[in-house]
């Protein structure tokens, strides 16, 4: 691996983080040791390597660096860290797709999809995504780098990104603030790297779907940067307010409960012995056509019908009829995580309910921790720190923030679902794909479908919306089989939504 260092701007700033109280809405040094660490606000390290993807050698160049965020007066207010992979044997970049990738939180770094999903190097885990030692990364044979260049971006106070000086949190930590400065950042990166001609894509996971949904229209309306595609991985509700229940309401969780109960073999044999793909459509139809209308009657639902529904909900969820009745036919996810395996002495994970947890006791209504996220920290934190510093040559004493440094997020004015619909309506080239894991209890797959159905109530845009589901959780790509399938779906999506040369953008 070749290594060179290009210092674009020798601007060094103290590493800072948000005051926990947020009272002055300013950043302060965490401690004396942290304050002594510095961040170069505008710099890049260039490395070169080759990945084997789908049996093909793919040479690529890596930019590991920081790029500034400026305020309206031209002052640097933050430095955003990124890692960009550009295929090295491409003669015409105008036909080469370019994808910007964001994770969620909103305080999560890009590490998860970077070395877990689409990048050319992947974290070492077992075939089901569980951590193993020794930690590290290996070649990712399913990376989509063969069909698109990739830019993994860490928003402010994630990864190595930091605010500069006394920059106010109001510039960064909110739905619309986040979208505004990142749109400017993308504009700058595209201009610096001469990629205005390239087809462009965004991919976001979890809260990252809120981010990229909003970016789709912000880039289009404020920067005249029109996209070809947006990929929503384990999406949020995108600020939608549909005619029926809110996305992720307890009633919409039943198909996810059925999938999780099936995985842990908690269903009766008539259901347990069926394949998951055969079972889930039945539960979805029951949820929409029977359970949801019945719950609309509230306390005036006929007692016999209530008892009948309680039996069916219990049968699909793996819970007892008593628990279902006590929760008025719509059990909250927090109770489900504690209740499903209570008799075995375990809880199930939130982000991926295949994972089991152990609480101090088996009483209570909620589990103590998310077994999934506790497990993932084992693999990703050591791997990304070693990979960036050793393999990519990024030298710093800063701590890589996996997540949790963006408290006090301003969620007001979230219209990102409508923003995405508007972007679709205004841009005939734009397509959207949603990916969801059947065992994801945080952003459950059925709510993702429900969000997609309600994204465009007119139905006129449905031919540009696509859903794919997987037998894993929030990070479906951690499971080896789904890593291959989900990347292949992205590959297909990019190829199908990149028009041929000379194709006009028009309704047909």
Multimeric state of these chains? single chain
Mean pLDDT: 90
What's the CATH H-level superfamily name of the largest domain?
Alpha/Beta hydrolase fold, catalytic domain
Structural class given helices, strands, pairing?
A: alpha/beta
Tally the helices: what do you get? Answer: 14
DSSP strand count:
17
| Helical percentage | 25-40%
The tally of structural domains comes to 2
The 3D shape can be described as: globular
Spell out the key features of this protein.
11-stranded mixed β-sheet, 508 residues, Rossmann fold, two-stranded antiparallel ribbon, 33% helix, 14 helices, alpha/beta, globular, disordered N terminus
Which SSEs are present, and which pair or pack?
Blueprint lengths: L1 E13 L2 E2 L8 E2 L3 H5 L1 E16 L2 E15 L5 E12 L10 E5 L8 H8 L2 E3 L13 E3 L9 E6 L7 E2 L11 H18 L7 E6 L1 H16 L6 E5 L20 H10 L5 H4 L3 H20 L7 H15 L3 H6 L6 H7 L7 E2 L7 E2 L13 H21 L24 H11 L4 E7 L7 H11 L9 E6 L9 H18 L11
Parallel strand pairs: 7-10, 7-12, 12-13, 13-16, 16-17
Antiparallel strand pairs: 1-4, 2-3, 4-5, 5-6, 6-10, 6-11, 8-9, 14-15
Helix pairs in contact: 3-4, 4-12, 5-7, 7-8
């Amino acid at each position: 691996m070749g290594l060179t260092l290009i210092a674009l701007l020798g601007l060094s700033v103290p590493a800072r983080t948000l005051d926990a109280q947020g009272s002055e809405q300013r950043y302060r040094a965490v401690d004396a040791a942290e304050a002594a660490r510095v961040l170069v606000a505008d710099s890049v390290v260039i490395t070169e390597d080759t990945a084997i993807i789908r049996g093909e050698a793919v040479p690529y160049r890596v930019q590991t660096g920081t790029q500034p965020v400026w305020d309206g007066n031209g002052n640097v207010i933050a430095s955003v860290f990124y890692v960009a992979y550009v295929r090295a044997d491409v003669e015409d970049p105008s036909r080469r797709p370019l994808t910007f990738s964001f994770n969620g939180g909103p305080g999560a770094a890009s590490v998860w999809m970077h070395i877990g999903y689409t990048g050319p190097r992947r974290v070492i885990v077992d075939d089901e995504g569980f951590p193993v030692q020794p930690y590290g990364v290996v070649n990712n044979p399913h990376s989509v780098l063969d069909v698109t260049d990739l830019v993994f971006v860490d928003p402010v106070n994630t990864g190595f990104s930091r605010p500069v000086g006394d920059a106010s949190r109001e510039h960064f930590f909110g739905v619309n603030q986040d979208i505004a400065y990142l749109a400017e950042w993308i504009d700058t990166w595209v201009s610096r790297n001469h990629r205005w001609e390239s087809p462009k894509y965004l991919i976001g996971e979890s809260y990252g779907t809120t981010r990229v949904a909003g970016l789709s229209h912000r880039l289009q309306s404020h920067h005249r940067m029109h996209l070809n595609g947006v990929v929503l991985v384990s999406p949020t509700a995108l600020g939608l307010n549909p005619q029926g229940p809110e996305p992720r309401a307890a009633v919409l969780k039943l198909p996810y409960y059925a999938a999780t109960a099936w995985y842990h073999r908690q269903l009766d044999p008539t259901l347990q012995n069926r394949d998951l793909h055969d079972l889930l459509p039945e539960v979805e139809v029951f949820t929409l056509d029977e359970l949801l209308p019945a719950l609309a009657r509230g306390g005036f639902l006929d007692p016999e019908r209530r008892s009948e529904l309680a039996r069916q909900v219990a049968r699909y969820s793996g819970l007892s009829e008593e628990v279902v009745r006590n929760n008025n036919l719509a059990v909250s996810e927090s109770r489900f995580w504690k209740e499903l395996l209570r008799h075995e002495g375990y809880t199930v994970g939130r982000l991926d309910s295949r994972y089991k947890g152990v609480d101090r006791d088996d009483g209570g209504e909620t589990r103590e921790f998310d077994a999934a996220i506790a497990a993932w920290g084992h693999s990703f934190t050591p791997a990304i720190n070693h990979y960036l510093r050793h393999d990519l040559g990024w030298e710093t004493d800063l701590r890589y923030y996996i997540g949790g440094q963006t408290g006090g997020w301003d969620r007001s004015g979230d219209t990102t679902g409508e923003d995405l619909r508007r972007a679709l309506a205004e841009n005939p080239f734009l397509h959207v794909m949603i990916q969801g894991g059947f065992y994801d209890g945080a952003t459950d797959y059925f709510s993702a479908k429900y969000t997609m159905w309600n994204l465009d109530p007119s139905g006129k845009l449905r031919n540009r919306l696509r859903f794919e589901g997987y037998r894993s959780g929030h990070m479906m790509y951690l499971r080896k089989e789904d890593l291959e399938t989900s990347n292949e779906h992205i590959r297909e999506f990019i190829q199908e939504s990149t028009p041929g040369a000379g194709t006009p953008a028009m309704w047909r």
